[in-house]
Input
Amino acid sequence: MSTVPTLPGIQSQMVQTNRLNVHVLSCGPEDGTPVIFVHGNVSSATYWEETMLALPDGFRGIAVDLRGYGDTEPLPINGATGMADFAADVHSVVETMGLGKHHIVGHSMGGGVVMLYIISHAADLLSITLVDPISPYGYGGSKGADGAMTFDDGAPSGINPEFVQLLASGERGLENPTSPRNVLRAFYVKAPFIPAREEDLLSSMLTTKIGDDWYPGNAVPSANWPGAAPGDKGVLPAFNRKNFDASGLAHIDPKPPILWVRGADDLIVSDYAMFDLAALGHMGAVPGWPGDEVCPPQPMLAQTRAVLDSYAANGGSYREEVIEDAGHSPYLEKPEAFNAIFHAQLLG
Output
């Protein structure tokens, strides 16, 4: 059923919910305590397979493909509501499969999806794990630890069009520096690490639906640097600060324990991220940058820490764990270190 090969022990199925037809990977006993996994941008449930198979006895791993990724029905992603729609899609799987109380895990963009999910479904959760998540104020368009908008239209916004073109064409080579394989090796993980299942992870990336309605979405002209702001369709507008604010998670009730785990050398989510246009402007890679006073790099880690500190101040608890010598995907790069921390969270 999965268009990407799966590891032995992983089951693939389609789950028709009241919202859409969702592709789900699962493993473990059917009566096990459910652990829901939500993948990041330009990937799919495939990325979670090793982590699912390593779950402690008595747990059931369930990873979903979000709409526009993997084999899930590619309904359009609305620029204004896309992240909330992702979260509602995940919950529709939980309801349709009758999973009851569960743990939830989100990586990167999926961490942002999980943040919105927990705001709506806190009472259903046993624990929350955020792995190198985007900020509670999204990716792009904000500044300062309080997540203030940089410009009122969401600028700056954009992504390398060559990467999008190569993704759309199914490029698997190494010749072009912005090829999906090179992006995987340079940014998804910390070089020189190469995942054992690189071919399947690359195939997972290439399932990404490309276009205005999906990835990367559309943009509109802006009077603000660098001349583009998020439009009303697709992924980049959906997780831009203009349309995404999950800081309300600080006030959920009840407050399940939160584990925030990240690679020490993450280049995608950091206070000086390599895909943040403001950071790229600061380093001289995008011309015309108006300076720190107007458009400083987004302090993604500081923003996440500020919201989680507020969560703790309001009676919740969280742990920030940093895995050394790992990039954006520590569960792939340092599975023993990651699983030791993660399993402790699951087992309480």
